């Protein structure tokens, strides 16, 4: 039986006095509250909400808020309230109706007695607050949205929190010593590299704008930076966030636009960063393995822009220069988040440049690794398993508890299964490598992919495809899904990847590879890519796609020998 109630009223001293007389729990009981204005909202928890409200009324940034809601429950304790506070902040950020005014330093993921039962109550509280107009979307709609998944209000895992703490400590020491530095954060798919990058941007912004008159109440060790001395170090810093992939960049810009203290203009491409008139004190680079070298640009004008930036930054157009060099030239300090095994294009910075980047960070003892798997329910073993399957040293077949892996011989059956999962939990999509020409880009009536009599089109948009209204009827190419989460991924392994049974090895089929520039040679640099070199990139592509699904992965293989080879690795015995 529900024991909570929500009190509503104006955010005013008279209302606070009335509530305090009505119920002593407004003066001495753990509660959670929300204060909202025209387009902003603040969520908090307190043991004395009456006093806390009076403190908020005395501050310039909150006295303009108009409405107050207080969630009271006789069974609440401090741990429950901290959890509910984080739950509401995260969902409000993902909903997008209001801009969330909170700092992210207090968001934590701590277990406590009875948590599973309380979180069921949180859903009921959400429903009542949605009826009040604080939310516009349902809970599943919010939790499947990119605004939620890439929110700066995520609760960090233990290893993420340790990495962030070490990075901020080292960064502040570097600034105080006026020294340059370079940090590398590595992690497999699903370990939250982008989450850490976005979190750092919000944390540093909050620190820059911290008002010493406002106490930071948090059990997080990150709250120790919100004391006199540290904010002054970062107050005048110019910080930029470089995201090489257009689709992911546009999504993060939307997140920043909805977050006080952040600005969509902070998020740039490498080309925009290279052309920026100012020098940066700090550049955070997400998906650094997708930075580019001078050949194989995705569009013609970018060849000239690449040369122009080289000339501006270095006084010469040396073809060996890469966007990694631009980042170093344009900033005093850098944080690179990367996974070299997710390079999927010959135009990506070469592996030797990434190895050098790692070696430099090792020399400064500034390399960190994320290990906790946040995306795939099967756990971190699944990522290594998939990468091994797509190599010439295949592992022993295995299954993964609580993870839905299925192998299909019929394309129509897999598409039907993906549609069924989408109806159940949402965010189930078909994805593929670039193994078919993109006819529909010029002819909207044309189909791009035909398998077993099933005709399909590539993604109609390059930006935020997974959330677009037509995405369920389309197939997402690698460049639209790298960096995103799905609940279920239906992976089509196309004829660009084949299996040579006589040699017991994977092979690349260049005749069925249609990424316009990804297999091009670089004559200016005297580089010719062999089929074996591109095979490694194609294997990376399918490893990325096979690790997108949080709840499950469905697999269809075009090449019959490869189908027979891979079947045993992805058959789980499920119907």
Automatic annotation (TrEMBL):
<dbReference type="InterPro" id="IPR027417">
    <property type="entry name" value="P-loop_NTPase"/>
</dbReference>
<dbReference type="InterPro" id="IPR003593">
    <property type="entry name" value="AAA+_ATPase"/>
</dbReference>
<dbReference type="InterPro" id="IPR018647">
    <property type="entry name" value="SLFN_3-like_DNA/RNA_helicase"/>
</dbReference>
<protein>
    <recommendedName>
        <fullName>GIY-YIG domain-containing protein</fullName>
    </recommendedName>
</protein>
<dbReference type="InterPro" id="IPR000305">
    <property type="entry name" value="GIY-YIG_endonuc"/>
</dbReference>
<dbReference type="Pfam" id="PF09848">
    <property type="entry name" value="SLFN-g3_helicase"/>
</dbReference>
<feature type="domain" description="GIY-YIG">
    <location>
        <begin position="28"/>
        <end position="100"/>
    </location>
</feature>
